[in-house]
Structures are given as structure tokens and as C-alpha cells.
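Suppose you are handed a protein chain with no further information: no name, no annotation, nothing but its sequence. What can you learn? This example shows the usual starting point.
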Amino acid sequence: MGSNLEVTNASKNNAIDFHTRKTFTLNTGAKIPAIGLGTWQSQPNEVTEAVKSALKKGYRHIDTALAYGNEAEVGKGIKESGVPRNEIWLTTKLDNTWHHRVTEGIDSSLKDLGTDYVDLYLMHWPSSTDPNDTKKHLPDWDFIKTWQELQKLPATGKVRNIGVSNFGIKNLEKLLNDPSCKTVPAVNQVELHPNCPSPKLVQYCKEKGIHCTGYSCLGSTNSPLYKDATLLKMAEKKGKTPQQVLLAWGIQKGWSVIPKSVSKARIDKNFELDGWELSSQEVHELDNLPDRFKVCGDGWLPVKVFFGDDE
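A reasonable first move is to predict its three-dimensional structure. Written in C-alpha cells, the prediction is:
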């Protein structure tokens, strides 16, 4: 049940990767585009233009979340792009304070997005946060119960695939070993870049047939990665931007990537990934960068979700 790589419209005899045409096949049989546009931390008035620019450039995968507060702008960008909805992979996420209100959560997202279905619906964090006090966890609810509710959604037609986000091995084990877990998550969206590579988690997901999507795949704003001599030297040698090198690394490692940008120039550049690839030696060099940092911790949540067991 591992994620099978599929390359469409690319010659099998051509060794050079066509990353922008690549899809990964999920355990449901659905094909998720290898590169998408992330919208976390994008200001609402910038998101519509970013989504429109990305779709016009050729992106066919857009990632958002109820918590980002920009689903309406994402929906507007999709409509204004002129690209048919059925050609776009759209992911959104259930917010932590909505865990006990899954039906209301997906309905709210669909209304704001202006669509009648999403391709992928993720549980954003394994924390059922009390909406009346976000420093507290709900006393009578947990992510197991949330998953029980999420499992009902594909039958409604509102959601094509379901998955999780920010789940480490410990919480995945807890979920998958629970008798109520009838559906293995199709995707686990987690932070993935060379300074947060989580090889044990990635391998665990692969063994369970769970595809990984990497968020903060460029290391996020003001990333220390952009001072990394190995990365900068590699990008210069290849005549590519450090961002392009990081995206190729993620895709060649076997996960989808969702770089965030609101600048048309950067959105375009991040998509210029065809006709070249990293050598196995270059991938190995990036695999072995020694520095470590995490963009997203769990200190703001009422429960701990990261246990340092992913590497």
C-alpha cells in the first residue's frame, strides 16, 4: 500500500524528471499533484491573486485550512482563474476547536471555498482544543473520536479523501491501533525540509501506505536554510534558486510539496522544476545537512504532539 509514483505526459525513456507533471497515488487510488501552492500566513487580500497566478502558471494543487481564515479568498482565486474545478486538487483542514463539530467544520469550509467538495480533508492537529478556552483540551473528546467522524465524510460526497496533519509516530500508532479506525489516513501533512527531515516518520508512513505532504518545505520565512553553504553552493552550481533545489529534493524523496508565496515572480520560479533533477549524490548531501530547526512547535497547544521520535 505504499505511495506509487506516477509520471504523466513524460517520456519513459527520458531520465530527466518532469516534477510539475508528477502525481503520487494515494491508498485510495486518487492522484495528488506533487507540487501545490501553500497559503498559510498569506494575507487575505493577497491570497486570491496568489491562487489565480499559481493556477494560470500550471499549478493544479491548492492547500488551505479553516484556521488560515482565507478559504473564501482561495475559492475566489479558483473561480477567477478560469481553470475548471475538476482539474484542481483542493485540500483544506479541520480546525482544532471544531473536532467535536466535524460536519459543521466541513460545511463551513465548503461554503467559504464556494465548492461542493474538497479532494482532501485533513485533521489539522491531533488536539481537540476547547473552543471556550484554547489553553484547554476538551475533557470528553480526542482525535480518535474526531477520526471516527471524519471517516463518515467520503460517503457524503463532500470529501474525496481524508487524512491527518502534524501526526508523529506515537499518535499515528494510537490512531491506527484503535478498533474504530477503519480507514487508514491517505495523507499525513507534516513539516519537511532538510533541517527537519523526520526520516523515521516518513518511513513509518510509507510502510503504512500513508503519503506525506511537506509543509514549510522551504523552511518558512527568514529560514536559516538560506544561509546553508551546502545548499547555496549546490543551487549556484545548478543555476537554480535554493527554493527550487529544496522543492526538487522533497519531490525526489517521495513526498508532495506545498511552497507558500504571494509573489507572482516566486510562485512562477517555484514551479520551474522541469527538465532537471538532483543527482543521488546531491540528494544525499541535503539528507545529511547537520542543522536542525522546526518552524512549527507544539507549545501553543493544550497537549504535546511532538515527541522527538521522528528521526
